[in-house]
Amino acid sequence: MTAEKKGTVRVGILGLGTVGGGVFKTLHSNRETIRKRTGYEVEVTSILVRDLEKERQFDIDARLLTLYPEDVLNAEYDVLIEVMGGLEPARTVITEALRTGRHVITANKELMAKHGAELLAVAEQSGAHLLFEASVAGGIPVIRMLQGYLTANRVKGISGILNGTCNYILTEMGSTGREYADILEDAKALGYAEADPTSDVEGFDAAYKLAILTNLAYEAEVDLAQIERVGITSLQAADLELAERLGYSIKLIGNARETDDGLQLSVRPRLLPKAHPLANINDVFNAVTIQADVVGELTFSGRGAGEFPTASAVIEDLTALLCGESSIRRPSWKRRISGDAGAKKAQGNAWYLSYCCRPDDVQEIEVKVVESLLTQGAFLNARGEVAQKNGLVRQGWLVGGVSEQELQQTLQTLYKTGANERTAVLLPVEGEIVPGVEWKQQVPSINEALLSVRHAW
Amino acid sequence: MTAEKKGTVRVGILGLGTVGGGVFKTLHSNRETIRKRTGYEVEVTSILVRDLEKERQFDIDARLLTLYPEDVLNAEYDVLIEVMGGLEPARTVITEALRTGRHVITANKELMAKHGAELLAVAEQSGAHLLFEASVAGGIPVIRMLQGYLTANRVKGISGILNGTCNYILTEMGSTGREYADILEDAKALGYAEADPTSDVEGFDAAYKLAILTNLAYEAEVDLAQIERVGITSLQAADLELAERLGYSIKLIGNARETDDGLQLSVRPRLLPKAHPLANINDVFNAVTIQADVVGELTFSGRGAGEFPTASAVIEDLTALLCGESSIRRPSWKRRISGDAGAKKAQGNAWYLSYCCRPDDVQEIEVKVVESLLTQGAFLNARGEVAQKNGLVRQGWLVGGVSEQELQQTLQTLYKTGANERTAVLLPVEGEIVPGVEWKQQVPSINEALLSVRHAW
Questions:
Q1: What is the DSSP annotation of A30-91?
Q2: What's the mean pLDDT in B56-84?
Q3: In what residue span(s) does the Homoserine dehydrogenase catalytic domain sit (chains A, B) (predicted)?
Q4: B2-6, B110-114, B243-247: the lowest-pLDDT one
């Protein structure tokens, strides 16, 4: 794989934070490998920073640094690397670079999710390439897979753990039994969560990444409003414990699947059976499972964020340009996917339902749940309960053969009977579920049904 | 990604068994996708088969079929697809095709592991490409990753579950408690194992695949004799149960890692802690974890064999050729890696040791084990035992700070004390292990050490 010497490629960089620092250091540390395998020397000509005086953990020529985007654009460069994040000035500077025929490599998921089609069109017009492997799942080459590998294959569905912050929080809640707010503080202290964690914990970040993957897989452009989005803030440690007992993990999953009604897109916490390829992806790791028509199911996992994994994705985009830009395929995000999130609510028929109540109310609420399931033609798969520290009980049910809307109605009834509205949780369950053993015996009356449920547990 | 119409590519196929049938059917079913994305129509011009009269599950023009390799070479073709397996006539036909400038796509791991360098040299000389994604891990694009993605990255280690037959057998032994020979019969009935399973269960098949991955990652050529190879035939269901109790899975792992003594290569059953990315890969699934210097750890998993996953790999090699053969990098397997398996025995210092004995002998053998560990400066992490159906007991130990050779000596002593030599098992353990709680208290005498061990369990 040793390449002939081809010259020098000049690179401008926007941003010298965690990822930018990783890119700069790796261009230095792996210079010889890059030269040997691509034939090119990489020379950094200019770097946009926020603070010229900031102390950095590595040697850098101060003359490369500037506070002004124009300086980067006015320097000599062949490739622009954007690792600053945010919509502006990134959008303007990238547009200008592409317009003048320079290749751009970006790690900016928000920008690609919101303005990807527009930027790709500018690139196509000038003949430049816009690469964005680092925008999704850090160092995991899932974009390369969708864009460069699955060519004869048609993608049928995508499922991913796309946000490391949420995965860390859920993993810790499950393993320690501590609550969301506590773990979030730990995550901030460890640098896994930002001071304002909204984009992560409310699922915006995962939705940007899901949009990018969907755009690539379906050669379309998803409107972010089409993605049903539920964060992790209302989950209780007790839910993770109940799910575990029932044989499931709870993960925040970005999901795109083809249905008879078109493409269904969601980011929401889901119960995954332990044998699911994403069920054992823990801590800050990310993973993506792609379902395709010929190859079946492929899963890629690795570190989804951090200095070097993300820098790796940026630099491998650069080496791809250096090895043969002519063979890089242009994504086409042109066909608009119609509809909105409301119209394409998850059609799954297996659900996890949980709520808190006083121990005294347990039995009455159980009767209501079973009554409601019977009325809706639904069935019960399993049930569990854990005592919470506050003296309340959390009950969790796995139910099937029922829609989310119907279960919302069930919940309304339960609130009147004493279930705590503020702490109710309703999550989709992946995989087939079947009526539990006792349920199958054609329960003739509500009381007997309930009895059999208690018995089964 | 819609490409302009570029013409027709003519394909000859060697073999129309499971994979060949999958290739033929997919070229038909996904013809439109391939045409749209590559610009090419694919036309099959000739197929080498073993039996012209065999009934097939799909429509095929009988005039395409031939019993003679020369017919395939004499037909008009641009690309040769080899999915027949075995060394000959595959090697001769592929050499001839490459010599005359035709691209070749092969799924033949044995051929690539034994004669890859020779065939790649022929390809390089004529300007043709030899592609072999399907030779390792079925539909999982691990070769594409090593060859086309990890360019700035340097690979530091590879671990893989590379044989679906063994993974199926081990998974079933663990979940059902049934023994190897029983499960092997099931695997044969399900089509997961061949009539003669030697190549799979003794680790030859995994060694071929490990050699191919190592050759790519290290730009070298491994001699198969350099790979330490241990199969799964001596494992007992009780070992899987003991490992599970201790928090581990047992998997047949192909492993390449850099050590101070050079590259260490092995295929052998290993204990993986449950959090290891390969520990939860079950049934016939394959997975490969690559450790690289910038990106860290990446894991790819999916179906490692079967009609369509393997056909997918073959056809995606074809689409790679159609999308831009100029950008496909040539692997260089030139530098010989010196040394042999004996010289590079696994240097790990954590081990799982198990043996069968009569219940009456348990205590005496335990004393010997602890005595031996103390003498060797080793330590005990954990211990377990299960009663076997034959009235014997299987004891398993996790020990650290000791070499494999030293433990072999320990085993010799145990045999004299009543441990059954024929059923002893010694496996490397992945991950750090530390002295168990009681062991840490500076055991002053063997008897106390033993007491503390019993206590700890």
A1: THHHHHHHHSEEEEEEEEE-S-TT---SS---GGGEES-HHHHHHS--SEEEE-S-SSTTHH
A2: 95
A3: 141-318
A4: B2-6
Topology annotation, domain A7-131: Rossmann fold (3.40.50)
**What is the fold of B142-303+338-344?**
Dihydrodipicolinate Reductase; domain 2 (3.30.360)
Largest CA distance in chain B: 82
Separation of alpha carbons A278 and A391, rounded Å: 34
In chain A, what residues touch B37 (CB-CB under 8 Å)?
151-152
Bigger pLDDT: A280 or B444? A280
What percentage of chain B exceeds 70 in pLDDT? 91
Write out the two tokens for A269. 């916490």
Give me the half-sphere count of Cα atoms (radius 13 Å) on the Cβ side of residue B413.
16
Helix (H) or strand (E) holding B271: strand B262-273
Lowest mean pLDDT among A162-171, A181-190, A345-354, B236-245: A345-354
| Candidates A25, A109, A209, A251; catalytic one | A209
pLDDT at B330 over 90: no
pLDDT, tens only, B338-373: 555 544 455 568 999 999 999 988 888 888 888 888
Instruction: Specify whether the CB–CB gap between B384 and B395 falls below 8 A.
Output: yes
The helix/strand/coil state of B241 is helix
Q: Which has the closest alpha carbon to B159: B296, B270, B253, B271? A: B253
- Token readout for B379 is 């330590």
Residues in chain B within 8 Å Cβ distance of A34: 151-152
Residue type, A72: V
Tokens representing residue B330 in the block: 């040539």
The separation between CA B209 and the C-alpha centre of its own chain, rounded to angstroms, equals 6
Q: Which residues, 6 or more positions from A29, have their beta carbon under 8 angstroms from its beta carbon?
A: none
Are B151 and A319 spatial neighbours (Cβ–Cβ below 8 Å)? yes
Q: Are A215 and A221 in contact (CB under 8 A)?
A: yes
Beta bridge partners of B273: B248
The β-bridge partners of B52 are: none
pLDDT attached to residue B343: 43
Per DSSP, the three-state class of A101 is coil
Catalytic residues of B, by residue number, are 209
d(CA A212, CA A160): 12
In angstroms, the CA B171 to CA B278 distance is 12
Query: Is the bond preceding A89 in cis, omega lying within 30 degrees of 0?
Result: yes
Q: What angle do CA A264, A269, A272 make, to 5 degrees?
A: 90
Buried b vs exposed e over A164-196: b needs ≥16 C-beta within 10 Å?
bbbbbbbbbbbeeeeebeebbeebeeeebbeee
Distance from C-alpha of B138 to C-alpha of A397, rounded to nearest angstrom: 39
pLDDT for position A456? 46
Amino acid identity for residue B189 in this structure: A
* Cα Dmax for chain A: 82
Contact: A296, B277; criterion CB under 8 Å: no
> Which of A32, A79, A153 should be substituted to probe chain B, the one whose Cβ sees the most B Cβ atoms within 10 Å?
A153
Domain borders along chain A are 7-131, 142-302+338-344, 350-456
- Of B421 and B203, more confident: B203
Pick the CATH number of B350-456 from 3.40.50.720, 3.40.50.300, 3.90.580.10, 3.30.70.260: 3.30.70.260
Beta bridge partners of A14: A48, A82
- Work out whether strand B285-292 and strand B296-303 pair parallel, antiparallel, or are unpaired: antiparallel
What would the CATH number be for the domain defined by A142-302+338-344? 3.30.360.10
Query: CA dihedral in degrees (B29, B30, B31, B35; nearest 10)?
Result: 170
Q: Whole-angstrom Cα distance, residue B230 to residue A288?
A: 33
Q: Which residue of A has its CA nearest to B300?
A: A300
Q: Is B393 helix (H, G, I), strand (E, B) or coil?
A: strand
